[in-house]
Amino acid sequence: MANCVTCGQENVAGSTYCNRCGKPLASGEGPGATRKPTDPSDRILVSRDHTGEVSVEKVRPPGRFFRQTCPWCGRSVKVPEGARSCPFCAKGLDRSAADLAGDPALASPEPRDPSRPGAVLKHALPTGDERRIALRFARCVVGRTQGVPPELVFPSDLYLSPCHGEFAFDGDRVRVRDRGSANGTYIRIREPWPLEDGMRLLMGEQVFRFEAIPFDTLPDAAAGEGTMPLGSGLERSAAKLVKLLADGGDGPEFHLGARTRVFGRETGHYTFPDDPMMSQRHAAIEEREGRFWLTDLGSTNGTMAQVRDIVLMPGDVVRMGSQRFRIEYGAARRT
After folding, report:
1. Alpha-helical runs (H) found in 50-199
2. What is the average per-residue pLDDT within 281-287?
3. How many C-beta atoms lie closer than 10 Å to residue 113's C-beta?
4. pTM for the full model?
């Protein structure tokens, strides 16, 4: 038993605090004994069993916690010291350092030669205004957590990947490249655009994936009798658009045949009356000599096609996540 030097209460052996008055107990059992120092990082756990017996034990916390941003999913996470993986996406938390060490565009960006013609991005703001961002480096990176220059980092845009895409000078022009982003990089089309299998398209707020349908997967007439399967229609589809849903799944399919198909908010073969960003007649897809072509029909907000690496012409509009950029070229600066 341990006697409290303050009130004299007998306490269970090993107790740190008195069960009656709550004062710290002496390290010995008699008056005047020295008190045992306690580690401020320890926590005291007091428990009582069914007989009323009280037990006291010290519990040491697991260590210090740190808050950092996951370079993969972009979440701000609080993890114990020494943790190597994100508790949300389970990927490594040290990707950022590895990327910086192996990517000169992020670690030590190369300035653009001022004697060569430059370029600027006109960044569209929610207010309808534009913000001017000079492409000061040979390669400029856009992302949610990583980017060069700092004006191309958008922490609140959850549709952007941590390191989404880049604008890189190729001679006196600029190439836009996707860096393996989750949602892709898009360009606003200005003329009929050839569609490739797996390519994503944006019309208003609708996101589609273009899929070619191989001929050998189409239903044949039953047993050579000339009878088509019920529900197939009389026209075979060689391709389709699959609507992508917000939860990442696939939605309705819109089949494409030999005839031109028009997409719009109110007019067309396929309409989306609840989409305020889509024009009345927005875009059309037609088949020509075995290939499908996407054409914008003068829509207000434009039609966009996914790109991975392409040279930008003056006035081209690029979308990454929710951000839109318009490229403008300038003359070389005088030295």
Report:
1. 95-102, 104-107
2. 97
3. 13
4. 0.67
